[in-house]
Fold this protein.
Amino acid sequence: MNQSTNMKFICIPIRNIALLLCAVIYVDAFQPYARTMQLIPSPSFQTLSSHRKQLHRLYASQNGNDDGDSILDRFLSPKIDDAGLPIADALNAQIVAPTLQVAWLSVNHAPIPTWLATIYNNNNGLLYNVPSQGALLVPTLIHGAGLAGCWLMGALAAKAYDSEAFNVSGGRGYGTVVKRIFQAGAFATGILIFSTQLDLFLEFGRYVQLGENEDTDLRLLSAVVELINDVFFEALVLSSWRLYRASLTASADGRPYE
């Protein structure tokens, strides 16, 4: 009885010593990791924000944006150095270019576009037989509003409202100005083509192509001609306006931007 009791008391300290040694080994084994974790600072909002900005700049540089902005930022937070330039662009695209197109077609006794034909169904399809003066104003402005929207989207995508897109002072030349005009026009033309395809799809309720029948062929050819006319007159008016606007910064009478 005494021997069993003594053995029990001997086993208890040995078990405690074993547990203590295991605890020491555990602490010594994870002590380097504990030091490393103490050296790592806890993430804060500023740290996460700086990391996000670095990733954003890296993504922008990989996509060819030297200024560090993405295509989405050009629409959501655009840089506009001349607050009146978008308004002037919209007026030229909505009023001047469509009016010039209608006047040219009227002088040449050309068939009216489809965006005017719905109003003048009894006009034999000729512009010079309009029933009253001023009747072309409303449809021209409505159609011009869509064209102005296409150009504004293209101008924002091409960063055409930065000062370098219309500033030729200091011997900068017209290279960047012409480049931005072409970039904005290409983007706007793409939107106009997509809008025309969507309009045709909604009109016929299905996808149509040349060769189906005479009615669809005539409508598609009319859409192509109207698209070419819109692009030509918009490019003529807006390019002339943009080059004139840039020429103002080359003289002392203009509004140079540094």
Observations:
- The two ends are 103 Å apart (CA to CA).
